[in-house]
Protein backbone atom coordinates (compact mmCIF):
# COMPACT_ATOMS: atom_id res chain seq x y z
CA UNK A 1 0.00 0.00 0.00
CA UNK A 2 2.86 2.33 0.90
CA UNK A 3 4.57 1.57 -2.43
CA UNK A 4 1.39 2.28 -4.37
CA UNK A 5 0.92 5.57 -2.56
CA UNK A 6 4.51 6.59 -3.28
CA UNK A 7 4.02 5.74 -7.03
CA UNK A 8 0.82 7.78 -7.21
CA UNK A 9 2.45 10.73 -5.53
CA UNK A 10 5.49 10.50 -7.81
CA UNK A 11 3.25 10.24 -10.89
CA UNK A 12 1.26 13.28 -9.88
CA UNK A 13 4.44 15.28 -9.36
CA UNK A 14 5.93 14.20 -12.71
CA UNK A 15 2.77 14.39 -14.85
CA UNK A 16 0.38 16.85 -13.18
CA UNK A 17 -1.36 17.62 -16.48
CA UNK A 18 -2.64 14.07 -17.13
CA UNK A 19 -5.58 14.25 -14.77
CA UNK A 20 -6.51 17.77 -15.82
CA UNK A 21 -6.33 16.90 -19.54
CA UNK A 22 -8.46 13.82 -19.15
CA UNK A 23 -11.11 15.79 -17.26
CA UNK A 24 -11.10 18.45 -19.95
CA UNK A 25 -11.59 15.89 -22.72
CA UNK A 26 -14.50 14.22 -20.96
CA UNK A 27 -16.07 17.56 -20.06
CA UNK A 28 -15.83 18.75 -23.66
CA UNK A 29 -17.75 15.69 -24.93
CA UNK A 30 -14.96 14.76 -27.35
CA UNK A 31 -15.76 11.10 -26.82
CA UNK A 32 -19.49 11.68 -27.41
CA UNK A 33 -20.92 10.98 -30.85
CA UNK A 34 -22.04 14.06 -32.77
CA UNK A 35 -25.84 14.25 -32.83
CA UNK A 36 -27.55 13.52 -36.15
CA UNK A 37 -28.30 15.57 -38.10
CA UNK A 38 -26.03 18.53 -37.37
CA UNK A 39 -25.92 19.92 -40.94
CA UNK A 40 -28.14 20.01 -44.07
CA UNK A 41 -29.14 16.72 -45.73
CA UNK A 42 -28.66 16.25 -49.48
CA UNK A 43 -31.57 14.48 -51.21
CA UNK A 44 -30.61 13.39 -54.75
CA UNK A 45 -33.36 13.12 -57.38
CA UNK A 46 -32.69 10.94 -60.47
CA UNK A 47 -35.33 12.79 -62.52
CA UNK A 48 -35.64 16.28 -63.97
CA UNK A 49 -36.80 19.09 -61.70
CA UNK A 50 -40.42 20.23 -61.82
CA UNK A 51 -42.11 16.85 -62.17
CA UNK A 52 -44.21 14.85 -59.73
CA UNK A 53 -41.22 13.22 -58.04
CA UNK A 54 -39.62 16.63 -57.55
CA UNK A 55 -42.79 17.98 -55.90
CA UNK A 56 -42.94 14.93 -53.66
CA UNK A 57 -39.29 15.28 -52.66
CA UNK A 58 -39.73 18.93 -51.73
CA UNK A 59 -42.78 18.13 -49.62
CA UNK A 60 -40.81 15.37 -47.92
CA UNK A 61 -37.93 17.79 -47.42
CA UNK A 62 -40.14 20.27 -45.60
CA UNK A 63 -41.49 17.56 -43.33
CA UNK A 64 -37.99 16.26 -42.58
CA UNK A 65 -36.76 19.77 -41.81
CA UNK A 66 -39.48 20.17 -39.21
CA UNK A 67 -38.79 16.77 -37.68
CA UNK A 68 -34.98 16.66 -37.85
CA UNK A 69 -34.19 20.36 -37.43
CA UNK A 70 -31.98 20.67 -40.53
CA UNK A 71 -32.64 21.82 -44.12
CA UNK A 72 -33.06 19.18 -46.82
CA UNK A 73 -31.49 20.25 -50.12
CA UNK A 74 -33.05 18.65 -53.21
CA UNK A 75 -30.52 18.08 -56.00
CA UNK A 76 -31.68 16.93 -59.45
CA UNK A 77 -29.26 14.55 -61.19
CA UNK A 78 -31.14 12.97 -64.11
CA UNK A 79 -29.53 10.76 -66.73
CA UNK A 80 -28.78 7.19 -67.83
CA UNK A 81 -32.12 5.79 -66.67
CA UNK A 82 -31.53 7.03 -63.06
CA UNK A 83 -28.01 5.57 -62.91
CA UNK A 84 -26.22 8.94 -62.70
CA UNK A 85 -27.89 9.79 -59.39
CA UNK A 86 -27.55 6.24 -58.07
CA UNK A 87 -23.81 6.12 -58.71
CA UNK A 88 -23.34 9.50 -57.00
CA UNK A 89 -25.10 8.30 -53.84
CA UNK A 90 -23.44 4.88 -53.91
CA UNK A 91 -20.04 6.60 -53.73
CA UNK A 92 -21.04 9.12 -51.05
CA UNK A 93 -20.10 8.89 -47.37
CA UNK A 94 -22.36 6.61 -45.36
CA UNK A 95 -23.09 9.24 -42.71
CA UNK A 96 -26.78 9.84 -43.51
CA UNK A 97 -26.25 13.24 -45.13
CA UNK A 98 -26.66 12.00 -48.73
CA UNK A 99 -29.89 10.21 -49.65
CA UNK A 100 -31.31 8.87 -52.91
CA UNK A 101 -34.89 9.15 -54.12
CA UNK A 102 -35.17 5.59 -55.34
CA UNK A 103 -37.16 4.67 -58.44
CA UNK A 104 -38.27 1.07 -58.89
CA UNK A 105 -35.91 0.27 -61.77
CA UNK A 106 -32.81 1.86 -60.21
CA UNK A 107 -31.74 -1.10 -58.07
CA UNK A 108 -33.97 -3.82 -59.53
CA UNK A 109 -34.16 -4.15 -63.31
CA UNK A 110 -31.24 -1.81 -64.06
CA UNK A 111 -28.95 -4.27 -62.29
CA UNK A 112 -30.03 -6.98 -64.74
CA UNK A 113 -30.38 -4.97 -67.96
CA UNK A 114 -27.08 -3.07 -67.94
CA UNK A 115 -24.00 -5.28 -67.98
CA UNK A 116 -21.58 -2.40 -67.35
CA UNK A 117 -23.51 -0.75 -64.52
CA UNK A 118 -21.20 0.99 -62.04
CA UNK A 119 -22.99 0.07 -58.80
CA UNK A 120 -24.56 -2.98 -57.17
CA UNK A 121 -27.40 -3.70 -54.78
CA UNK A 122 -24.98 -4.03 -51.87
CA UNK A 123 -23.91 -0.38 -52.32
CA UNK A 124 -27.20 0.83 -50.81
CA UNK A 125 -29.10 0.78 -47.55
CA UNK A 126 -32.85 0.88 -48.30
CA UNK A 127 -34.73 3.05 -45.77
CA UNK A 128 -38.41 2.84 -46.72
CA UNK A 129 -40.85 2.88 -49.58
CA UNK A 130 -42.89 6.08 -50.01
CA UNK A 131 -45.77 4.86 -52.17
CA UNK A 132 -46.90 2.08 -54.47
CA UNK A 133 -48.64 2.58 -57.79
CA UNK A 134 -50.22 0.33 -60.44
CA UNK A 135 -49.73 0.51 -64.19
CA UNK A 136 -52.52 1.36 -66.60
CA UNK A 137 -53.06 0.81 -70.33
CA UNK A 138 -54.50 3.90 -72.00
CA UNK A 139 -55.84 4.56 -75.52
CA UNK A 140 -57.51 7.43 -77.36
CA UNK A 141 -61.22 7.96 -76.67
CA UNK A 142 -62.31 6.63 -80.09
CA UNK A 143 -60.06 3.54 -80.04
CA UNK A 144 -62.11 0.47 -81.10
CA UNK A 145 -61.59 -1.41 -77.80
CA UNK A 146 -62.77 -0.59 -74.29
CA UNK A 147 -61.46 -3.50 -72.23
CA UNK A 148 -58.54 -5.91 -72.21
CA UNK A 149 -60.35 -8.71 -74.07
CA UNK A 150 -61.27 -6.33 -76.88
CA UNK A 151 -57.75 -4.87 -76.94
CA UNK A 152 -56.16 -8.30 -77.33
CA UNK A 153 -58.67 -9.22 -80.05
CA UNK A 154 -58.00 -5.99 -81.93
CA UNK A 155 -54.23 -6.48 -81.73
CA UNK A 156 -54.52 -10.08 -82.87
CA UNK A 157 -56.59 -9.07 -85.92
CA UNK A 158 -54.09 -6.31 -86.79
CA UNK A 159 -51.13 -8.66 -86.41
CA UNK A 160 -49.41 -6.42 -83.84
CA UNK A 161 -49.97 -3.29 -81.78
CA UNK A 162 -47.45 -0.61 -80.85
CA UNK A 163 -47.30 0.74 -77.31
CA UNK A 164 -45.20 3.43 -75.69
CA UNK A 165 -43.51 3.53 -72.26
CA UNK A 166 -40.93 5.65 -70.50
CA UNK A 167 -38.12 3.33 -71.60
CA UNK A 168 -36.73 -0.14 -72.23
CA UNK A 169 -36.75 -2.30 -69.11
CA UNK A 170 -39.26 -0.06 -67.35
CA UNK A 171 -41.99 -1.80 -65.37
CA UNK A 172 -44.68 -1.13 -68.05
CA UNK A 173 -42.36 -2.50 -70.73
CA UNK A 174 -41.90 -5.71 -68.74
CA UNK A 175 -45.63 -5.96 -68.00
CA UNK A 176 -46.44 -5.79 -71.73
CA UNK A 177 -43.71 -8.33 -72.52
CA UNK A 178 -45.43 -10.68 -70.08
CA UNK A 179 -48.84 -9.87 -71.61
CA UNK A 180 -47.51 -10.68 -75.09
CA UNK A 181 -46.44 -14.13 -73.88
CA UNK A 182 -49.70 -14.79 -72.04
CA UNK A 183 -52.00 -13.65 -74.86
CA UNK A 184 -49.99 -14.73 -77.88
CA UNK A 185 -50.28 -11.20 -79.29
CA UNK A 186 -47.33 -9.17 -80.56
CA UNK A 187 -47.15 -5.88 -78.67
CA UNK A 188 -44.35 -3.79 -80.20
CA UNK A 189 -42.47 -1.55 -77.79
CA UNK A 190 -41.76 2.11 -78.59
CA UNK A 191 -39.52 3.58 -75.85
CA UNK A 192 -39.90 7.29 -75.05
CA UNK A 193 -37.86 9.67 -72.92
CA UNK A 194 -40.53 10.00 -70.26
CA UNK A 195 -44.23 9.25 -70.07
CA UNK A 196 -45.62 12.65 -71.05
CA UNK A 197 -44.46 12.49 -74.71
CA UNK A 198 -45.98 9.02 -75.11
CA UNK A 199 -49.31 10.21 -73.71
CA UNK A 200 -49.25 13.18 -76.08
CA UNK A 201 -48.68 10.85 -79.04
CA UNK A 202 -51.69 8.75 -78.02
CA UNK A 203 -53.75 11.94 -77.76
CA UNK A 204 -52.57 12.98 -81.22
CA UNK A 205 -53.31 9.61 -82.81
CA UNK A 206 -49.63 8.84 -83.50
CA UNK A 207 -49.43 5.92 -81.02
CA UNK A 208 -52.22 3.40 -80.34
CA UNK A 209 -51.43 2.49 -76.74
CA UNK A 210 -49.67 3.94 -73.68
CA UNK A 211 -48.56 1.79 -70.73
CA UNK A 212 -47.52 3.51 -67.51
CA UNK A 213 -48.69 5.44 -64.49
CA UNK A 214 -51.89 7.47 -64.40
CA UNK A 215 -50.17 10.69 -63.36
CA UNK A 216 -49.77 11.98 -66.92
CA UNK A 217 -52.98 10.61 -68.37
CA UNK A 218 -55.48 11.11 -65.51
CA UNK A 219 -56.59 14.65 -66.51
CA UNK A 220 -57.30 13.55 -70.08
CA UNK A 221 -59.11 10.41 -68.89
CA UNK A 222 -61.35 12.54 -66.65
CA UNK A 223 -61.96 14.96 -69.53
CA UNK A 224 -63.00 12.08 -71.79
CA UNK A 225 -60.16 12.50 -74.30
CA UNK A 226 -58.46 9.25 -73.31
CA UNK A 227 -59.83 6.00 -71.92
CA UNK A 228 -58.16 3.51 -69.60
CA UNK A 229 -58.41 -0.12 -70.68
CA UNK A 230 -57.09 -1.92 -67.60
CA UNK A 231 -55.00 -1.36 -64.47
CA UNK A 232 -52.56 -3.69 -62.73
CA UNK A 233 -53.76 -3.02 -59.18
CA UNK A 234 -55.24 -5.93 -57.25
CA UNK A 235 -58.52 -4.08 -56.76
CA UNK A 236 -60.16 -1.19 -58.60
CA UNK A 237 -58.69 2.20 -57.74
CA UNK A 238 -60.88 4.31 -55.43
CA UNK A 239 -60.25 7.42 -57.55
CA UNK A 240 -60.90 5.54 -60.82
CA UNK A 241 -63.51 2.90 -60.00
CA UNK A 242 -64.50 2.48 -63.66
CA UNK A 243 -61.10 1.07 -64.70
CA UNK A 244 -61.18 -2.77 -64.64
CA UNK A 245 -58.22 -4.79 -63.38
CA UNK A 246 -56.07 -7.49 -64.97
CA UNK A 247 -57.39 -9.81 -62.26
CA UNK A 248 -60.96 -9.30 -63.44
CA UNK A 249 -59.87 -10.14 -66.99
CA UNK A 250 -58.31 -13.42 -65.84
CA UNK A 251 -54.66 -12.29 -65.88
CA UNK A 252 -53.78 -12.84 -62.22
CA UNK A 253 -50.03 -12.89 -62.90
CA UNK A 254 -50.27 -9.31 -64.18
CA UNK A 255 -51.33 -7.90 -60.81
CA UNK A 256 -48.42 -5.60 -60.03
CA UNK A 257 -47.59 -2.32 -58.32
CA UNK A 258 -44.24 -0.60 -58.52
CA UNK A 259 -42.80 1.45 -55.65
CA UNK A 260 -40.72 4.55 -55.11
CA UNK A 261 -38.63 4.90 -51.98
CA UNK A 262 -35.53 6.24 -50.26
CA UNK A 263 -32.05 4.75 -49.82
CA UNK A 264 -28.69 5.76 -48.37
CA UNK A 265 -25.16 4.52 -49.02
CA UNK A 266 -24.47 1.12 -47.47
CA UNK A 267 -22.89 0.99 -44.03
CA UNK A 268 -25.20 3.50 -42.39
CA UNK A 269 -25.23 3.17 -38.60
CA UNK A 270 -28.37 1.62 -37.13
CA UNK A 271 -29.04 4.67 -34.98
CA UNK A 272 -29.05 7.02 -37.99
CA UNK A 273 -31.02 4.53 -40.10
CA UNK A 274 -33.70 4.30 -37.42
CA UNK A 275 -33.86 8.10 -37.08
CA UNK A 276 -34.25 8.60 -40.83
CA UNK A 277 -36.79 5.79 -41.13
CA UNK A 278 -38.97 7.24 -38.38
CA UNK A 279 -38.80 10.71 -39.95
CA UNK A 280 -39.79 9.45 -43.40
CA UNK A 281 -42.65 7.33 -42.07
CA UNK A 282 -44.05 10.35 -40.22
CA UNK A 283 -43.57 12.52 -43.32
CA UNK A 284 -45.48 10.09 -45.57
CA UNK A 285 -48.38 10.20 -43.12
CA UNK A 286 -48.51 14.01 -43.19
CA UNK A 287 -51.17 16.03 -45.03
CA UNK A 288 -48.47 17.95 -46.89
CA UNK A 289 -47.00 14.84 -48.51
CA UNK A 290 -50.32 13.13 -49.17
CA UNK A 291 -51.50 16.33 -50.80
CA UNK A 292 -48.87 16.07 -53.59
CA UNK A 293 -49.31 12.36 -54.34
CA UNK A 294 -51.04 11.47 -57.60
CA UNK A 295 -54.46 9.75 -57.55
CA UNK A 296 -52.94 6.31 -58.23
CA UNK A 297 -50.05 6.66 -55.77
CA UNK A 298 -50.89 4.76 -52.58
CA UNK A 299 -48.87 5.94 -49.52
CA UNK A 300 -46.87 2.94 -48.35
CA UNK A 301 -43.97 2.59 -45.91
CA UNK A 302 -41.86 -0.42 -44.97
CA UNK A 303 -39.17 -1.26 -42.47
CA UNK A 304 -35.62 -1.23 -43.91
CA UNK A 305 -35.46 -5.04 -43.72
CA UNK A 306 -38.84 -5.52 -45.41
CA UNK A 307 -37.89 -3.04 -48.13
CA UNK A 308 -34.61 -4.86 -48.78
CA UNK A 309 -36.50 -8.14 -49.10
CA UNK A 310 -39.01 -6.55 -51.51
CA UNK A 311 -36.17 -5.39 -53.76
CA UNK A 312 -34.68 -8.90 -53.84
CA UNK A 313 -38.06 -10.42 -54.71
CA UNK A 314 -38.53 -7.94 -57.56
CA UNK A 315 -35.12 -8.84 -59.01
CA UNK A 316 -35.96 -12.56 -58.75
CA UNK A 317 -39.35 -12.00 -60.43
CA UNK A 318 -38.35 -9.73 -63.31
CA UNK A 319 -34.73 -10.76 -63.94
CA UNK A 320 -35.73 -13.93 -65.80
CA UNK A 321 -38.25 -11.95 -67.91
CA UNK A 322 -35.50 -9.53 -68.95
CA UNK A 323 -33.05 -12.30 -69.86
CA UNK A 324 -35.61 -14.45 -71.66
CA UNK A 325 -36.60 -11.54 -73.90
CA UNK A 326 -33.05 -10.37 -74.68
CA UNK A 327 -33.43 -6.98 -72.97
CA UNK A 328 -29.89 -7.06 -71.56
CA UNK A 329 -27.68 -4.27 -72.88
What this model shows, in words?
With 329 residues, the chain is an alpha/beta fold. β1, α3 and β2 form a beta-alpha-beta unit. It is built from twelve helices and eleven strands. It has two domains: 41-133 and 258-324, Bordetella uptake gene, domain 1 (D-Maltodextrin-Binding Protein, domain 2); 136-254, D-Maltodextrin-Binding Protein, domain 2. A six-stranded mixed β-sheet has the order 2-1-3-10-4-11, sandwiched between helices.
Instruction: State the fourth-level CATH superfamily of the largest domain.
Output: Bordetella uptake gene, domain 1
Helix/sheet category = alpha/beta
CATH architecture of the largest domain: 3-Layer(aba) Sandwich
The main sheet comes to:
6 strands, mixed
Question: Spans of 5+ residues with little confidence (pLDDT < 50)?
Answer: 1-5, 7-32
CA-based shape: globular
Mean pLDDT reading: 90
Helix content: 40-55%
Number of helices: 12
Strand percentage lies at: 15-25%
Which CATH C-level class of the largest domain is it? Answer: Alpha Beta
Report the C-alpha radius of gyration, rounded. 26 Å
What is the H-and-E element order? HHEHEHEHEEHEHEHEHEEHHEH
Strand segment tally: 11
CATH structural fold name of the largest domain: D-Maltodextrin-Binding Protein, domain 2
For the biggest β-sheet, the strand order reads: 2-1-3-10-4-11
Can you tell me the number of structural domains? 2
Distance between the termini: 78 Å
Amino acid sequence: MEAAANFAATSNRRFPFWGMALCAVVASGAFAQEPFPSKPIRFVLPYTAGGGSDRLMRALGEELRERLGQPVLVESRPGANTMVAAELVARARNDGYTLLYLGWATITTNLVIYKNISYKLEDFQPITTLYRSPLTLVVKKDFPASNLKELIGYARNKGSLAYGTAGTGSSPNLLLVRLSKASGVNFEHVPYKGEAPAVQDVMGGHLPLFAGSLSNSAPSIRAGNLKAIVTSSGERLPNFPDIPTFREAGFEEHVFTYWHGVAAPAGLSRAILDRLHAAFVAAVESKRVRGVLEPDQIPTTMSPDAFSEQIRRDIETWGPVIRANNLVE
